[in-house]
Amino acid sequence: MVASSWLLLTYKVPPEPATKRVALWRRVKGLGAVYLQNGVCLVPKTDDHVRRLKMIENDIAEMGGEAVILETVALDRAQDDKVIARFKADRNEQYKEFIGRCADFEKEIAKEIAINKFTYAELEEEDTDLRKLQGWLEKIKKLDFYGAPLAEEATARLRACGELLDGYAQRVFDAHAENR
After folding, report:
1. CB 3.0 to 4.6 Å from 148: which of 5, 79, 88, 166, for a disulfide?
2. 74 touches 1 (CB < 8 A)
3. Which residues have a Cβ under 8 Å from the Cβ of 155 and sit 6 or more positions away?
4. pLDDT tens digits for 67-115?
């Protein structure tokens, strides 16, 4: 068995101020970490994660807290699979939310078509929304270390949103050509 190697971060920080504690939690989650319990989390071992956890460890010390970073592996394949499943489940939750936002984007375009709102201002707004979706999906994929099942669906939905926007853009261009 080739075991996955993880970095285990355990930390304890003062309860106040809560804003610092929440900001810390967001930074750790932003690494793609899974929390095994409060103040105990894992990330895959990479040079980038080592560097970033060291910076987080320093920030925890400045908050008056304490942290320990360890390199670890699972006891056996079953434990390895459990941890990887947690990573996949976390990413799937993010993909589900993303797919929901794609559905919102699709409804917005459908609404604009239904009311014949073919303006450049609306097209620009929808284009901005699509770029936000693209950036969001890139961020999720960057943290999808083990290939969550919904990754392909999320990619396909984004592609469909792009095609939908292209169709809407053509209608905007056609509407403005007719008015000349």
Report:
1. 88
2. no
3. 137
4. 999 999 999 999 999 999 999 999 999 999 999 999 999 999 999 999 9
Question: Of 73, 101, 116, which marks where a domain is finished?
Answer: 73
Do 95 and 52 lie in one domain? The reply is no
Whether this model's pTM surpasses 0.85: yes
Sheet architecture: strand order including 40-44: 34-37, 40-44, 5-12, 66-73
Bond from prior residue into 17 cis (ω within 30 degrees of 0): yes
Query: In whole angstroms, what is the distance from residue 154 CA to residue 93 CA?
Result: 11
- Measuring CA to CA, which residue among 71, 70, 67, 54 is closest to residue 12? 67
- CA pair distance 4, 124, nearest whole angstrom: 45
CB 98 within 8 A of CB 43: no
At 180, the pLDDT band (50, 70, 90 cuts) reads low
Supply 47's token pair.
Answer: 């040079």
Q: How many domains does the chain have?
A: 2
The DSSP 8-state label assigned to residue 76 in this structure reads S
- 36 and 109 together in one domain: no
